[in-house]
Every structure is written in C-alpha cells, then in structure tokens.
Write a structure and sequence with these properties.
Elements (H helix, E strand, L loop, with lengths): L1 E5 L11 E2 L18 H4 L7 H4 L1 E13 L4 E12 L3 E7 L5 E7 L2 E2 L5 E2 L4 E10 L4 E10 L12 E6 L5 E6 L21 E7 L11 E4 L1
Amino acid sequence: MTVSFRPLLVSMAALGLSFGATAPVLAQEGAEQRTSTAFTMDTGGPRTPEQLAMRFDVADLAIKVMPDEKAIEGVATLTFTATAPLDRLVVELDTRFDVSEVAIDGQPLSPGDWVNPEGRMTITLPRRLGEGQSVDLRITYAGKPHVARNAPWDGGFVWSRAPGGEPWIATAIQGDGCDLFWPCIDHPMAEPGRVDLHITIPSNLSAPANGLFLGK
C-alpha cells in the first residue's frame, strides 16, 4: 500500500513519519550494520558555497518501509533553482545507505560524477547551471537507517511494537537532521518550498503524516 501526502507545514530538519495506529514506544536496541559519521550526527552546520547558491523548491520523497528488515528503500527527487551559476550540487545523506543511482533531469550519472565520503554528497553537473535555471536531482538509495537509542532525545528510526504486536515505527530526528533517512540540505535555512510524500508500507498498517492526504 502506498500512501501519499502533500505536507502543508513541515520542518525539514525533522520530517516526522509514523507507521502504525497506537501509542509510541521508545526505540529498541538493535544491531546496525554501519555507523553514521560524526558529520551526519551533527546538524545545522555551515552550508557550502553551492548550497548557498541554490533555492530548494520541491522534495518528492518515495519511501518504502520494510519492518521485518528494519530497512527502507527511497527515491528522492529534489528540485533546485540556481541563484548564481552552479557546476555542482551538494546535499547531505547518511553513508549508511547504498546509493544505486544518481540522475540529473532524468539522466543517470556515472559513478565518478558524485561522491559521498562522510555524508555530504557532491554531484558534478553535466552542464553549468545558469542563474535562474532549475534542475531535478534524483537519488535512489536503500539500507538500514540509524536507530534512535533514546527517542526523541537521540535521533533516528524507532522500530517497535504496538501492544497487539503490530509494528510501530516512527522517525525522531529533530535534533539530528533530515539526512538520517533522506537526502536534503541539513540546515534550518534551506527547507524546500514543498514536500510530496509517497510512503509504501505493508497493507495492514497505516502511515499518518502531516499535510494534505492525497490518497492510497
């Protein structure tokens, strides 16, 4: 089941999602295959010159949540407009995720056209973007997101169970930033003008989120 929303009011430093239909439980301790970098676990740091030279217009986020694997698959399409000439785009995304494709305006880039050494992904554009020109950046990724050790104070995903045994899943990332589970500019002054959410979950669960419900 895929549930779609168009959020009306949302803080990009902590786009909150919950999956299930009952009261929350604090995050369980669980094995994590990778460790998030110190850069990713920090938030609101100085933006790069490239980030200062672009406006974040739209984030279209398609996220599949897999409770049994405690993993997600995501396709994020981010639309930016250059406010000064740009040769590169810079966004943040946790290195825990495997990135299978990066595309500009629908055209996949070669692996050598982007790097993500510490959680700050730098993408070389196939052509210079002039002031006022827009571009779509699509990132396809998958993996096991950082688990919140003590939600909501220590951020990350919450993988828990409702009293009836159903999965109860949430994101608690207010203090640690959006890059814990989707590519973004992890700074409060760089929020997108609009966010569209498409959340795919097992059909026996619900996926409440803020914004305008578009259907399922």
